[in-house]
Amino acid sequence: MELTNIPEFKCKKCLKNFEIEIDDFETDTYSYERSMGNENQYNWNYIGNCPHCDNDLEISFDAYEYPVGMLNYEDSELTGCEFIIKPIFNVHNEDFETDI
User: Fold this and answer.
1) What is the DSSP string of 13-75?
2) Residue 92's pLDDT is what?
3) Cβ neighbourhood burial of 7 (10 Å; 0-12, 13-18, 19+)
4) pLDDT, tens digit, for every residue of 59-75?
5) Of the candidates 68, 51, 71, the residue with the CA atom closest to the CA atom of residue 4
6) To 5 degrees, how large is the angle CA 45–CA 47–CA 48?
7) In this structure, is the dihedral angle defined by the CA atoms of residues 22, 27, 29 and 30, taken in order, positive or negative?
């Protein structure tokens, strides 16, 4: 799973827009056994400050792949900001890729 864009946010304190590069997020991956195989959860977390006013920010978003190869669910929690442009997730599954 990967993000195909750079999410954009708006600070709730100064109301200015800003981006956070994907490399600035901490990432975790979890896998759970379910009836149709594994469910994979991908998590991106950022704790920091608004680049304009130093407002405290906590940003977390998750994407779930189930069954493997299919984006099943997305979730997010934002503190101190809101989305202007939401993240776009792309599932990479070698079993479904073809060379043209």
Assistant:
1) TT--EEE--GGGSEEEEEEEEETTEEEEEEEEEEEEE-TTT--EEEEEEEEEESSTTSEEEEE
2) 77
3) buried
4) 999 999 999 999 999 99
5) 71
6) 140
7) negative
pTM for this prediction:
0.86
DSSP state of 5: S
CA distance 92 to 96: 8
The tokens for 58 are 């906590």
Write down the residue that tokens 């704790």 correspond to: 47
Amino acid identity of residue 22, one-letter, is I
Round to whole Å and give the CA distance between 42 and 5: 16
